[in-house]
Design a protein that fits this description.
The structure holds three protein chains of three kinds. By secondary structure, chain A is an all-alpha fold. Chain A folds into two domains: about 5-60, no CATH class; about 65-275, MetI-like (MetI-like fold), CATH 1.10.3720.10. Chain A has helices at about 5-35, 60-65, 70-100, 105-120, 125-135, 140-165, 170-180, 185-195, 195-210, 215-220, 230-240, 245-280. Chain B is mainly α. Chain B has helices spanning about 5-40, 55-60, 60-65, 85-95, 95-125, 135-150, 155-160, 165-195, 205-210, 210-215, 220-230, 235-245, 255-285, 285-295, 300-330, 330-340, 355-365, 370-395. Chain B is globular and about 80 Å long. Chain B has 18 helices and no strands. In chain C, strand 1, helix 2 and strand 2 (about 85-90) form a beta-alpha-beta unit. In chain C, helix 2 (about 65-80) runs antiparallel to helix 14 (about 340-350), helix 9 (about 245-260) crosses helix 19 and helix 18 (about 395-405) runs antiparallel to helix 19. The longest helix of chain C is centred in the first third of the chain and has 21 residues, at about 1-20. The N and C termini of chain C lie far apart (about 65 Å). Classes of the chains: A mainly alpha, B mainly alpha, C alpha/beta. Chains A and B meet through helix 1, helix 3, helix 4, helix 5 and helix 6 of A and helix 1, helix 3, helix 8, helix 9 and helix 10 of B.
């Protein structure tokens, strides 16, 4: 693996890279092409139109943004996702710190138990969760969604942050303790600043959880239009009697772009976060 | 930590951990408890509402807390006789005579593999191996094949499939996971190996671009609709193939194709995760090992098998286990792509109707809440056990002092 | 790096604060125009209408697309005439499950616009209330609405809804594409239809008719075939299923033969694209699709074929409306919307078949070609039952039909499977 690869090997590797790039990007490129096409019929695409933009119009974007509630949906989703990210980071960090630094009976068992309980998929608990939230008066309320998403992310965030804190040597905090810092101060002033890369990753995962979730949002906020999140709204478009595919594609592009940007921006933290915090053997 | 007194410590710990505990209690434990109770009843379309005068439902059932419980023409639901009826309906086929016999056959067929593993362990302890390891495994596989023929494993498999929808759906999902994992790992490994190679230009560009499907997986429900279009009767693939004057099949109407398509789409979503994790792992392997192997004249393949893969194990094992569990729980992608797959017949799950999707359809299309409560409880027990075991394998729960 | 990270977090926080500040607190009607502003009440001492306080009525419906515009107009007119009432229309994604969570929480709509086959299970769950308690009598129904519509809203001797329109599907063909000789002449002669489809396919290479129940699980759209072969209904009031009859088997075998001359994969969208692009000669569909055909400029004709399901679209009163005290106002709106004049206006635009007799007898409506065509089809049809047993039929019949269409099962297996599945479901219901 040290000497430069042979020409043949190099050709193969570049071919694979280019091939995989096409594989990775084509569906999104397709959605972009479809969003620029006028009309709402799915089956009149000519072959060239599936690969290069044979025509381009902003009509679909215009209709989507000005004549449907799309912008409201995006606002709602942004609100829910951001708050989920912030909440899961703050609460996950405190939990992760506790599990990493404190020695208490039942620490190991507790974390294992939490993780195992969390393994239960939310889709089977949809109706009970929706009923609980309704009983608390949170039906059709974004805060209910945020609470549900956040609690789904908390154990995962705790686990990741605990793993990360484990790699930070305790010496700094012990030094701080000698100087008289208590656990909370030690947390806020020493551990938290050191954990920034991991915070970014956890925030990213929290944002992702809130942005793309469909099933719970669908059952908790089915109406009115102005409160729906963007996934529910997109499905409403996709289930209309006359599906406006151009608008759907335009919506898909608009929904993916923010998450792509956040991802690309934070992707360096992703690798660090995964290898150090999460999946250490 | 050293130096903080007992009582203050407990309070502080609680302060740090309380929100997580609370969230877990309300959103995970309580629905589970509710599901356990509901699974013992006959709640469904004809008995939809609880009888709020009974204490048990006053405590557990959320619709009773509001003080204005729904009252319709239907009877409220009540406990079944016998109380475990729902569980018996779901699992009965497995524990009947035919089911147990079929299970026995399948276990017998797997014995040669067990023997091969045991033989390998013994040979490893000897000074010189009489037979190389791959030959032992090959022998094991051949043994499995022969015994399958003798013990009529295909027949046993069919019996199990007919034993009930729950079992069929579970087997199908496990098969799906078993098919997916090697593909994910291999593709992730190949891409990680390529990206780890310093001599390739444009590494950062490729690394960033190839992660894009992972971002798209956030909105998997929507992207899968786009993927579905490629495979329609008049979708992209058929139009491409039509250029060669071949009339492409309706992929989503064919069980095998639909299954392959779901695997492919899931591969698209998941390979970045494997790629990034394995890349991190590769970068932590010291170069000296490779240099020493070169000096000894080891070929590229040998280096891979003897250095890279073993040293990747600490990373590879956890992510494979994690991904297996996530793949088992797949729902949104399949729902968008095939809605449960080509229909196999009335009352039978479709060809790509995996466990979570089956549960979703049963709950939301037939509203059989009681039966699905039992389904949820059984699944919880399975997933709980699997997660515990996987955590043991990966030993990730060590703290800062260990 | 830290700066950029913090600024990103800051941007997100600011964005979310903005979003929460801008998020609408009220729930406006999702029409392109802003809410109809109430016309100022003239300050003369004329007797004011009984309800002087502001009321908002929420209505969950299933209307979609262009269909919706004329309907919204009707509600706008009501709001203009009753300035203190605001009507809020919403279309939830999955109404059945949304209601099952919303109504017990007290957050459901006041009026539900739905097909009559849901009356049974909604009444069982306690989501809707009988209208007898609010002054609707059988004589009022019989005076105002068509007999089939009246039958559709009565269940277990109580009145549960007010009917607004009827619908059934028929053979809608493109006159330019399909010659006389390919058109079915006898609605119950399926062998002739098969022969004509075969001839059409061989002569032109295109499909004669696209039916979204063939190739897509949809028991509603394949009903004309089953019932046309003689199956009385899928499930009757006592819970007997009729999929195991020889007539059902004959229908299934016919479908297998027909699959050679029809598209393999269908849906509303696909069929529409086929007929608009000229890949199919006809579309087996209902009045809701006419607007699209007219928009595409197709000269269409309508013929009855088979015995379709006749569904009644209705408006139901929810339990939440009663709890909130909105029952009187909601009922008034329901009566207004299902009255002859309003339904006539809507029918003229949407080409639907109204339920009130006054509208049906109106000469302008009678002159509509669609009324004649769909009306003829519905006269042969089978009314959709509103018993809850009927909800057991949709899944199994759709699945069985799709299985035999794609060849996954033989007709016998498919029908036997469907019969068994329906019987199991009904046994679980009893």
């Amino acid at each position: 693996m040290n000497r430069p690869p042979t020409l043949a090997a190099r050709i193969v590797m570049y071919a694979v890279l280019v091939g995989m790039t096409l594989f990775a990007l084509y569906p999104i490129w397709f959605a972009i092409l479809a969003s620029g096409r006028a009309g709402d019929r799915l089956y009149t695409f000519n072959l060239a139109g599936m690969f290069v933009p044979t025509q381009w119009t902003f009509e679909n974007y215009r209709t989507l943004l000005y004549e449907t509630s799309f912008l409201t949906w995006i606002k709602n989703s942004l609100f829910v996702a951001t708050l989920t990210a912030i909440a899961s980071v703050s609460l996950g960090t405190s939990g992760g710190f506790a599990f990493s630094r404190f020695r208490f009976r039942g620490r190991e068992a507790g974390l294992i138990l939490f993780l195992a309980i969390q393994a239960f998929p939310g889709i089977l608990a949809l109706v009970p969760i929706a009923q609980i939230l309704s009983a608390f008066g949170l039906y059709r309320n974004h805060w209910g969604l945020i609470m549900a998403y956040m609690s789904g992310q908390l154990v995962f965030a705790t686990w990741m942050l605990k793993g990360y804190f484990d790699t930070i040597p305790i010496d700094l905090e012990e030094a701080g303790m000698i100087d008289g810092a208590g656990p909370i101060q030690s947390f806020v002033h020493i551990a938290l600043p050191l954990a920034r890369p991991m915070l970014a990753t956890t925030a990213l995962f929290g944002f992702m959880a809130g942005w793309g979730e469909f099933f719970l949002a669908n059952i908790l906020i089915p109406a009115p239009d102005a409160r729906k999140t963007v996934m529910v709204g997109m499905f409403q478009i996709a289930n209309e009697v006359n599906i406006p595919w151009g608008q759907f594609a335009a919506g898909a592009v608009l929904v993916i772009i923010p998450i792509l940007l956040v991802f690309l921006f934070l992707q360096r933290y992703l690798e660090a976060g995964l290898t150090m915090g999460g999946v250490k053997g | 930590m050293v130096g903080w007194s007992g009582r203050r410590k407990t309070l502080t710990i609680l302060l740090f951990v309380a929100p997580t505990l609370l969230g877990l209690l309300i959103f995970s434990i309580f629905p589970l408890v509710l599901n356990i109770f509901i699974s013992l009843t006959n709640r469904g379309k004809f008995h939809p509402n609880p009888d709020c005068t009974q204490t048990i439902w006053k405590i557990v059932e959320p619709t009773c807390w509001l003080g204005n419980p729904p009252k319709g023409l239907a009877e409220p639901f009540g406990f079944q006789t016998p109380v475990y009826q729902n569980y018996a309906d779901l699992l009965g086929g497995l524990f009947g005579r035919a089911g147990l016999v079929a299970l026995l056959h399948i276990v017998i067929a797997l014995l040669p593999l067990l023997a091969a593993w045991y033989l390998n362990r013994r040979f490893d302890r000897q000074l010189t191996r009489p037979v190389p390891s791959w030959m032992v495994w090959l022998g094991g596989l051949v043994g499995v094949f022969l015994v399958s023929r003798l013990a009529d494993v295909p027949g046993a498999y069919n019996t199990l499939l007919r034993a009930g929808n729950f079992i069929m759906v579970n087997i199908r999902t496990i098969l799906y996971v078993v098919v997916c994992m090697p593909l994910f790992f291999t593709l992730g490994l190949i891409m990680a190996l390529i990206l780890n190679n310093r001599h390739i230009k444009g590494l950062t560009f490729f690394r960033v671009i190839l992660i894009v499907p992972w971002a798209a997986s956030t909105v998997a429900i929507m992207m899968s609709l786009v993927w579905q279009f490629f495979f329609r009767e008049r979708g992209t693939i058929n139009q491409l193939v039509g250029l060669l004057n071949i009339k492409g099949p309706a992929f989503l109407n064919n069980s095998l194709w639909a299954f392959v398509i779901v695997v492919l789409v899931n591969l698209w979503y998941t390979y970045p995760f494997f790629m990034v994790s394995l890349l991190g792992g590769l970068q932590s392997i010291p170069q000296e090992l490779y240099e020493a192997a070169e000096v000894d004249g080891a070929s590229w393949w040998k280096q891979l098998i003897n250095i890279t893969l073993p040293l990747l194990r600490p990373i590879a094992l956890p992510i494979i286990v994690l991904s297996s569990l996530t793949t088992y729980k797949i729902d949104a992608v399949v729902w968008s792509l095939t809605r449960g797959g080509p229909i196999a017949g009335a009352g039978k799950p479709g060809a790509t109707e995996f466990v979570m999707l089956h549960a979703y359809k049963q709950i939301f299309e037939t509203q059989a809440y009681g039966r699905m409560g039992a389904f949820a409880v059984i699944l919880f027990v399975m997933l709980f056990a699997a997660t515990l075991y996987s955590l043991r394998i990966t030993r990730i729960t060590k703290g800062a002092y260990e | 790096m830290k700066k950029v990270l913090f600024s990103l977090v800051g941007v997100l926080v600011v964005a979310s604060l903005l979003a929460s500040a801008c998020a609408p607190k009220a729930t406006p009607t999702p029409t392109p125009k802003p809410e109809a502003t109430p016309t100022p009440v003239p300050p003369t001492p004329t007797p004011k209408p009984p309800e002087a306080k502001k009321v908002t009525i929420t209505l969950w419906h299933q209307w979609g697309g262009d269909y919706l515009k004329a309907i919204e107009q009707a509600f706008q007119d009501y709001m203009a005439a009753h300035p203190n009432v605001t009507i809020d229309l919403s279309k939830p994604e999955d109404t059945a499950n949304a209601l099952s969570v919303a109504i017990p929480a007290g957050e459901g709509p006041d009026i539900i616009g739905w097909a009559n086959d849901r009356i049974g299970d909604q009444a069982l769950a306690g989501n809707i209330v009988p209208l007898d308690d609010y002054g609707i009598t059988m004589s009022f129904l019989e005076k105002t609405y068509e007999p089939a519509a009246v039958r559709g809203v009565v269940w277990q001797d109580k009145i549960w809804a007010l009917p607004e329109s009827q619908e059934g599907i028929a053979f809608v063909y493109n006159k330019a594409m399909v010659d006389e000789k390919y058109l079915p002449t006898d609605p119950t002669d399926f062998d002739a239809l098969l022969a004509k489809a075969k001839a059409f396919y061989e002569d032109t290479g295109k499909y004669l008719v696209c039916n979204q129940g063939l190739g897509n699980p949809d028991a509603y759209h394949v009903a004309p075939i089953y019932f046309g072969f003689g199956v009385p209904e899928y499930v009757d009031d006592q819970g007997n299923a009729y999929l195991g009859t020889p007539e059902a088997l004959a229908a299934a075998e016919w479908m297998v033969k027909f699959s050679q001359y029809a598209p393999g994969e269908t849906s509303h969208d696909i069929c529409k694209a086929m007929i608009v692009d000229g890949n199919a000669g006809a579309w087996w569909t209902g009045p809701w699709a006419i607007a699209d055909l007219e928009a595409a400029g197709i000269d269409y004709g309508i013929l009855p074929m088979g015995k379709p399901f006749v569904g009644i679209k209705t408006l139901m009163l929810s339990a939440n409306a009663v709890d909130r005290g909105n029952a009187e106002v909601a009922l008034d709106i329901m009566k207004y919307f299902t009255s002859g004049e309003v339904q006539k206006k809507i029918a003229l635009v949407n080409k639907t078949i109204p339920a009130p007799t006054g509208a049906v007898q109106d000469p302008e409506i009678k002159a509509l070609a669609t009324l004649a065509g769909f009306g003829a089809s519905m006269n042969l049809g089978v009314p959709m039952a509103n018993t809850p047993y009927a909800s057991a039929q949709w899944g199994p019949v759709g699945d069985a039909t799709t299985a035999l269409w794609t060849g996954a099962q033989t007709p016998q297996e498919a029908m036997a499977g469907a019969q068994a599945a329906i019987e199991t479901a009904i046994a679980g219901m009893k």
